[in-house]
Amino acid sequence: MKSHKFIKTWLFVPIGIFIMLFWGCEREITDLGPAPYSNNPEVFIDGFSPGLNYAAFGGSNPAAFDVDEKVTYNKSRASMRFEVPDAGDPRGAYAGGVFFTTEGRDLSGYTALTFWAKASQAANIDLIGFGNDLGASKYQVSVSNLPVNSNWNKYYIPIPDPSKMKMERGMLFYAEGPENDKGYTFWIDEVKFENLGTIAHPRFAILDGQDQTETSFIGVSKQLGGLVSTFNLPTGADQAINAAPAYFEFVSSNESIATVDANGMVSVVGGPGNAQITAHVGDVVADGSLTINSIGSFQHAPTPPHAPENVISLFSEAYTNVPVDYYNGYWAPYQTTQSADFIVDGDRVLHYTDFNFVGIQFGSPPVNASTMTHYRMDIYLPNALSANAQMRIEIVDNAGGGTGLHTFTITPAQAQQWISLDIPLSSFAGLTSRNALWQIIFVDVNGNIPSFYADNIYFRK
What we know:
Elements: H1 15-23, E1 42-44, E2 52-56, E3 65-68, E4 79-84, E5 95-105, E6 112-119, E7 123-130, E8 141-148, E9 153-158, E10 168-176, E11 184-194, E12 200-205, E13 211-216, E14 221-223, E15 228-232, E16 238-243, E17 249-252, E18 258-260, E19 265-268, E20 273-281, E21 284-285, E22 289-294, E23 311-315, E24 338-339, E25 342-344, E26 347-353, E27 357-361, E28 374-380, E29 390-397, E30 403-409, E31 418-424, E32 437-444, E33 452-460
Parallel strand pairs: 13-22
Antiparallel strand pairs: 1-11, 2-5, 3-4, 4-11, 5-10, 6-9, 6-11, 7-8, 7-10, 8-16, 12-15, 14-19, 15-16, 17-20, 18-19, 20-21, 20-22, 23-33, 24-26, 25-26, 26-33, 27-32, 28-31, 28-33, 29-30, 29-32
C-alpha cells in the first residue's frame, strides 16, 4: 500500500545535507543563474505533491484534516478528508487551514485551480481558495459559500491574472464551520491548477461597479472596496470570486490631487481640484470609479473647551471615550444612512451619507449622565441646504424608557462650516431619567440633508 505523508510543521534540512550538496558542485557561483521556480500544477493527486505542507488555522480543530484512502474520487488512491466539528467542540470551533509550499511555484501558465469534492450532506463551505501563504497572501483568491453535496462534482476557482502567479506558495486554503451547529465531513480530491480555455468572459469591478463621487480634503485616505471578479465557467455558470486588491491595477487621473497605491488605498494630496480613480485587471477595464472632489485643506472642528473631568465623551480625539457599541446601527429595513468615516491629520471624523436617520449606541454599559447638564456636538454640512432643513436629535434613556426630543433648524448660511451645538439636557422633553442613557439618534426631518460630518460628541456639565 502506498503511504501518504503530510507535514504539520516547517521542515528543517540537516546542515550536513547542505554541505554535501555544495561539495558536489564545481561550477563557480558566478556561473549560476537564479534557479527557475517549479511550474508543477499538482497540489494533491493521490497524496501531497513535492514540498507541500499543511498548517491548521488558529482556533480551528487541528485534527480536522487527514488523508483518506477509502473515500476517493474515481478510485484514486487517496483523497483529502475534512471533519467539521460540532458547535462548541473543545478542540476547535471550526475546520480550517492552509496547504502551502516552502518554495514558490510558477503558476503563470494556468487559469484556474480545480478539484473534485463531495460531502456527507448538503452544505456550503464558508471559504475555499488559494494564495494564502501564511504571510502577506498578496494574491489570495477565494470562493464564499461553495455548495457541496453527497455527489462528486468538479469545481473551478479562476485566477484573475495568471501573470501575477510567478512565485506562489499558497496552494489551497479552506475554512468551514458547523451547519446548524452540527458537524459533517467533506472530501476533496484531484486538486491541481489547469490551463483551461473554457474559463471565459472575465468581468471586474471596483465599488461594486458604481461610479461614485466624494467631496474630500487634503490628508484624507479611503480604502477602495467592492472589488468584484466574475468568470464564466466550463459548466456555463458564472462564478464570483473574492480577489485580492493586488490583482487590480489602480490608476489616478490626476496624481497632484489624489494618489492610489497597489492595495487600493486612495490618498488626497492636493486641492482644490478633481481626480478620478479607475482600475483594470490585465487588459480588462473594471467597472466603477471614484471621483474625488478635493476642497483642499480640511477645516477641523473647534477644539472642545471643557475640562475632561466635566465630560462624558462618546466620540472625540480630545477626551477618553466611553465604550460605544457602534456609531451606525444600520437599522433595517428603513435606514438608508451609510458611513464613510475618514481620518485627516490623525483626527477621525464621522461622515454619514444617504442620511435619513442613524443611531449611536453605547449600552455596554449605559451612560450615567445624571450629573451632566448639556449635550454637545460639532456638525458640518458639506452640501448646500434648503431653507427648511431640519435635523432632530433623540436621546434614549434605558432606565426610564423615555425619549428626549430636540429639534433645531439649520439654515443655508450655516452649511459648509462647523456648527457647535450645546443643548441643555432639560430641553429634551420626555427625558425623565439620565442615569442609563444608551442611544443618540439623528433624524432628517424634511428629507433634505443628504450628508453631514460629526465630531466631539459628548455630555458635559
